[in-house]
Amino acid sequence: MKYRTLGQGLKVSAVGLGCMGMSHAYGRPHDHREMAGLIAKAVDLGYTLFDTAEVYGTAANPHDNEELVGAALEPYRSRVVIATKFGVSFDFSSPSTNKPILVDSRPQTIRRSLEASLKRLRTDHIDLYYQHRQDPNVPVEEVAGLMGELIAEGKILHWGLSAVDEATLRRAHAVTPVTAVQNRYSMMAREAAEALFPALEELGVGLVAYSPMANGFLSGRYLGTAGFDPKDDYRSVMPQFQKEAVEQNRRLLGIMNEVSAEHGITPAQLSLAWMICKKPWIVPIPGTTKEARLAEKAAASEVQLTPGEVAALDSELASSGMSAVFGGSRIVARN
Ligand SMILES: NC(=O)c1ccc[n+]([C@@H]2O[C@H](COP(=O)([O-])OP(=O)(O)OC[C@H]3O[C@@H](n4cnc5c(N)ncnc54)[C@H](OP(=O)(O)O)[C@@H]3O)[C@@H](O)[C@H]2O)c1
């Protein structure tokens, strides 16, 4: 495993572990003991960045993931970076598979969320605390000001924003310097994240890439939605897994297979190495619930693609044509 430094001096593994799928969005929550074993193995393999959020859970247990991650990381607390998020909840009353997101970043809500997250995560500080989605009713300056207070109090060490645009990032960073932006970024979702690169470079802010394998699609192992339960698996409604996408993505998967074979790596590793080799401040946080897949992802941090090879891949991606990719759940503002 290689390591990188994000924003205001936060050292993390060059590949982090996204823990969401253990509790949320990809079918039923997984057994805590089994996932604790997987997380222990990840620590063993050199992973130090673990990503969760207060809302990764189900109607039955809305905070399942923080509970799981907190218990699993307790023995390793001093060696790992815990990233979690505040500011949203899910509307579990909705009949849709992917539940609408309700936003709330009022300062009193954030303080309450933080105390509850600290308890569930069995720690006295959060290493990296993200605003999960912006709240149109609370100016980002107010949130950034509170983050500065929480840093001064020692309750959080760094902060970041998720699904953020450049203008909002600049406003936030001017109040309290930001360590990382966590945005969707993958070979199938390039433009919006890459448009932020000059600002990230200028401000010295890291990019933590979520859904870096396009929700697993870029592993090349899924052709269709078979096995995804429409009751609780968001992949059952994601465009890249639909029947019509098979044809639309044939060329893309062909390129992935060909280039990864040339390098003696898997398509999953290529999808991560491609972004790691672009900038020294990009850190993907792929998700998995399979212990056997941890080493594959960690090894992606060691793959060396030259700038020419990355550029060649970019031009293939630009001309290959591909299906749409999941763009996130609907956001509902608080009244
Ligand atoms: N900030 C936000 O708004 C936001 C939104 C979404 C996600 N996130 C964070 O980002 C993390 C990663 O997102 P993601 O889970 O969508 O990422 P991803 O890495 O693009 O996709 C994960 C999926 O890929 C599958 N997968 C992984 N390796 C595979 C392989 N070799 N072959 C076949 N399938 C494979 C996993 O299934 P298995 O479990 O079966 O391996 C899992 O379902 C999340 O855990 C969460 O922490 C943040």
How would you describe this structure to a colleague?
Helix 1 (32-44) packs across helix 2 (64-73). The chain starts with a strand and ends with a strand. The strands form three sheets. It has an eight-stranded parallel β-sheet with strand order 3-4-5-8-9-10-11-12. Strands 6-7-13 form a three-stranded mixed β-sheet, with no helix packed on it. It has a two-stranded antiparallel ribbon with strand order 1-2. Strand 1 and strand 2 (10-13) form a beta hairpin. It is of the alpha/beta class and 335 residues long. The model has no long low-confidence stretch (mean pLDDT 96). It has twelve helices and 13 strands. It has a single domain, classed as NADP-dependent oxidoreductase domain (TIM Barrel). Bound molecules: NADP nicotinamide-adenine-dinucleotide phosphate. NADP nicotinamide-adenine-dinucleotide phosphate is lined by residues 18-21, 26, 51, 162-163, 182, 210-216, 219, 221, 268, 285-290, 293, 296.
